[in-house]
Write a structure and sequence with these properties.
Layout (H helix, E strand, L loop, with lengths): L2 H17 L1 H16 L4 H29 L2 H19 L5 H15 L2 H16 L3 H23 L5 H17 L18 H6 L2 H15 L2 H13 L4 H20 L9 H20 L5 H8 L2 H19 L5 H30 L4 H20 L9
Helix pairs in contact: 1-6, 1-7, 1-8, 2-7, 2-8, 2-11, 3-5, 3-16, 4-5, 4-6, 4-8, 6-16, 7-12, 10-15, 10-16, 10-17, 11-16, 12-14, 12-15, 13-15, 13-17
Amino acid sequence: MTSANGGLAWRISLQYAALFVVPGIYLPFFSVWLRSRGLTPTEISIMLSVGILVRLIAGPLAAHAVDRSGRRKAAIVTLAWASAATLTLFGWVEGFAAMLIVWVLHTITWAPITPFTDNIALLATARHQLNYGRMRLWGSLSFLAAAYLAGLWLEGRPESWIYILLVGGILLLAACSHLLPDIRLPLDKPRAGLPLLRLLRRPAFLLFMLTTACLQASHAAFYTFGTLHWRSLGHSDAAIGWLWAEGVIAEVVLFAFAQRIPVRFGGAGLLVIAALGGLVRWSTTVFAEDYLLLTLLQLLHAATFGAAHLGAMRLLSEGCAPNESATAQTLYVAGNSAMLALATLAVGPLFAAHGGGMYWLMSLLSCCGGGLAMLLWRRRALLNFSA
């Protein structure tokens, strides 16, 4: 790798590091902050699922504009600052209805940032022979540090600090987004119809979306009520912060050595591995109360999320035309969001009634994702999302 390419890789790596500070705080502790604001588990599920569903519209529409203009960096910078503004406003409103409205506005601005960042990273990887996994792992390391350090910091402090940490994290992201490379593609003559409609008419792409949606939605109970469940078992915030963080360690190792994964597995093979990991992880979590067992189960995050993400990125990179790449990336996220929203709606009442029993639904989603991944595996030689 030349020094110029190395500088390009570090700029993208820095963006990933800043980007994942927010999820590192949000996923373990945001539902705790919402509960401190007086929301019930059902209201929390509704708010988060509505936010997820908003991504179905916001992401693809923004991607259509970006694929037509080619201005990926400008879009990320604008969206990051707008997202920071709406999140700041979120802390000043009261009541479920007002909070829901501001949350929708925030989600509109936040939703496209991650897929656009991935799109720039994949384009840079193809154009400059960079290592996607090595760049993306800085996001995982950032998530790990944010989750663990936030857990330590929040120990014994009021829940209002969760909101303060989130605002600080998103301001950091907005500042770092200015350092992203401005990678653009030669603009082709516009083709008839919206890119998202062209992609959605392709059976291979629909099968891909449904597969990844099931696998990513299997994390709904963990993302939404994992911390509250572990608190109910008597584990401290510091211990919970480590549970969130140490699972990412295995994910980081996977990303660091992703290029050594045998080519014969391909993207579809990685999705099969993710499904098998999910079956083991979630069915065991139903009964897991011992802290040591929980730490071991968290290592399977490398399979359930890490392998699923790498598999999806491989399939998108190999199967999509560059001038449809941003749209394909956001449709992938939108499909995941739709299934995740439905699963999130379901786990609120399940958690209230059955506690850890909510993870049976996650096991079922992993099973469905595994069956679909096997269909992708059998068709791997024919996968071309642009055909």
